[in-house]
Amino acid sequence: MRAKLKVFTNIGELLTLEGARSKQARHPQQSDLGVIKSAALVCRDGKVEWVGHECDLKTKASDAEFISLEGRTVIPAFVEPHTHLIFAGDRSHEFEWRIQGQTYQQIAAKGGGIRHTVNETRKASVAELTRLAEERAEVFVRQGVTTLEVKSGYGLDVETELRCLQVARALKGPRVVTTYLGAHSRSPEFPDLDSYLHMLCNEMLPRVAREKLADRVDIYVEEGFFSVEQGRTYFRRAQELGLGITAHVDQLSDTDSTAMTLEFAPQSVDHVVFASDASIRKLAASGATAVLLPSSDFYLRMQYPKARAMIEAGVRVALSTDFNPGTSPTQDLSLVGVLARLEMRMTLPEVLVAYTLGAAFALAREAHVGSLSVDKYCDFSVLSGSWSELFYSVGRHPIQAVYKSGEPLLRS
Amino acid sequence: MRAKLKVFTNIGELLTLEGARSKQARHPQQSDLGVIKSAALVCRDGKVEWVGHECDLKTKASDAEFISLEGRTVIPAFVEPHTHLIFAGDRSHEFEWRIQGQTYQQIAAKGGGIRHTVNETRKASVAELTRLAEERAEVFVRQGVTTLEVKSGYGLDVETELRCLQVARALKGPRVVTTYLGAHSRSPEFPDLDSYLHMLCNEMLPRVAREKLADRVDIYVEEGFFSVEQGRTYFRRAQELGLGITAHVDQLSDTDSTAMTLEFAPQSVDHVVFASDASIRKLAASGATAVLLPSSDFYLRMQYPKARAMIEAGVRVALSTDFNPGTSPTQDLSLVGVLARLEMRMTLPEVLVAYTLGAAFALAREAHVGSLSVDKYCDFSVLSGSWSELFYSVGRHPIQAVYKSGEPLLRS
């Protein structure tokens, strides 16, 4: 069969992010965005074959399908690297209880909190979980996302966790990276975290690895949840099984969980709000990406992670919504980006790279997505305005069309 | 001609807000929402003729068009009571300059700030201003808004201010309340605020009143802008001319401008972030509504108004986006509502009433919109979920359809 060749022409402005790529997405500047005016983009079999000034284009019309993008701006598609997408049930009423002064403990005592989501998720069928996940995935795609991380973690038993990972694996639309988060919280069937962890290490992790349901594993290390030592036990087992590693670390307090996780060459360490200066130095010296989740800090009315200190130290950062029904019930990338700029003093080039190449690194997908570079997937968004209008107006998503492997995933 | 009669049936849950209406929208509770399960709504010539339990419905099918709302939830349409909708130009680059540490003064010195918007707006044609305003109005309508306040204020000369008011008056889609905000800032053609104010009082206000272009007038009273005494001069003249009164007051500092404005029986006093306890007491005793604009405080990283103190004191509050290209470049009602709940500790019933009946009072339209009451316009939204899902997830607008005078303004 002949290779499928598509040429996107008449691109007013195209951002490759090639400069950020050569710097491994650490400390990106405006000049790293790789802005090309009057650009063209050649896509062969879903991958970028060539990108450059349209006047240098060699491909002939007889070989390829030509598509004019009408002078618009093109950016690499966004990568959303931390979501709890698969769950059933609604916890909006708990938000009201919290405003009215009820504590997490009081809400948990009447069956609320994560326990509520676990109960509803266990009851939900594959069809129902799929319907919900597809609706939510589409909300991300409409905002220009073509690569989406999806965690399990609301089953907390063997059967439901596997079901959620299967739903994630089968999800239509964006590229999906699946993460097994059995170690999200204590399973109600176990008397303590140690006994649950024992089951995870001896039963679940081998099964997840064998059935290839998860690309990587995640754990929530925090006071009152899994300890640093339990995290080590979990990661040792995951590493033996060849699973990628990520973790929720130092979110609500400095437990030194960032440093512990870095012992295991993780893909990313997520939250890092209370990471110490020493942890930030270790992080900068590592290959790991810090995934910052400011909408979670916004909803929790917490402090924000020290993004400026991290970036200046040479840490690669990514951004994400942390979409979940409890602490960050939003899927809005514009909120995340505006918070990153307003509250974390990140520049627009830093935000753009964090939501593309930085996030690709966070998922160990930097060879495939996150920039418009030769041999990567031809995943991009066509904007309805200039890229300077991104991450400025909460709720505004100037995305006119989204392409995955050169094919329209969404067209308005 | 026979009256046009429409009956909306099969409404799973309908919120009339009738209880809030009887309390004049002051201190609304959950019980004031007027929740009716299995409801029907009768609309005659665009107005509510009857609302109640469907089993009590008397209208016969032969008299009317029957429309099933498929068991969904119906709420009164939102009223958006404070927007600077009419402007040209883009100031997203200034947002980046501010993140990078440039002051408002530095940005103004290179032609940025309000001056930039004024220059671009003066250059824009009626057609261009209309296109921009219609796009923006549609963003509000999609979120369930059918009544929209629109201010002038980016012309600062006779010709442009009138043009902007004409564009606002002619706007298609939602009901529009127009507000003349010539006193937004000093006009560049005048050496000082006093001489500009003299022109406003002697030329512009009479003309605005005569041509019936504005329903009311507004002024920005703040240190470095118009003084309390200048506000008094402006309002005296507006009152003589029979124009309604509103004002930007006590936004960045306590200038006692809330108290001064209350001398003139205003429809609303807006921002009131730094209003003193004494001003709050005066406000509670007045007929005026406090319009709170938390997305502006969010973007400015300021404190939020003391909503709880106001509500407890008996002040009627409304909420609004303050949509403008500088300090609040968002049109997102969900952000406003989430900020009201998270940062101002407003309950969900308070937020709902603030964005409907409270906002209707703020525009002196409480006899016509803001609740689903007999003889008011039949303006409502059909939700895709429960009303408890509103103002919880930033960026999520569970609006399935929007009706104005019983006719679909938007249907998804």
Architecture overview:
2 copies of one chain form a homodimer. Chain A is an alpha/beta fold and 412 residues long. Chain A folds into 2 domains: 5-77 and 371-411, Roll (Urease, subunit C, domain 1), CATH 2.30.40.10; 79-362, Metal-dependent hydrolases (TIM Barrel, Alpha-Beta Barrel), CATH 3.20.20. The first copy, chain A, has 14 helices and 16 strands. Chain A has helices at 18-22, 92-99, 104-109, 114-123, 126-142, 158-169, 193-210, 228-240, 257-262, 277-285, 294-300, 307-313, 333-344, 348-362; strands spanning 5-15, 35-44, 47-53, 65-68, 73-76, 78-80, 145-151, 175-183, 216-219, 244-249, 268-271, 289-292, 316-319, 380-383, 399-404, 407-411. In chain A, strands 1, 2, 3, 4, 5, 14, 15 and 16 form an 8-stranded mixed β-sheet that branches. In chain A, α9 (257-262) links the parallel β10 (244-249) and β11. In chain A, α5 (126-142) packs across α6 and α7 (193-210) packs parallel to α8 (228-240). Chain A binds chain B through residues 90, 92-93, 95-96, 99-100, 139, 295, 298-299, 301, 329-332, 334-335, 341-343, 345-348, 385-386, 388-389, 392-396, and chain B through 90, 92-93, 95-96, 99-100, 139, 295, 298-299, 301, 329-332, 334-335, 341-343, 345-348, 385-386, 388-389, 392-396.
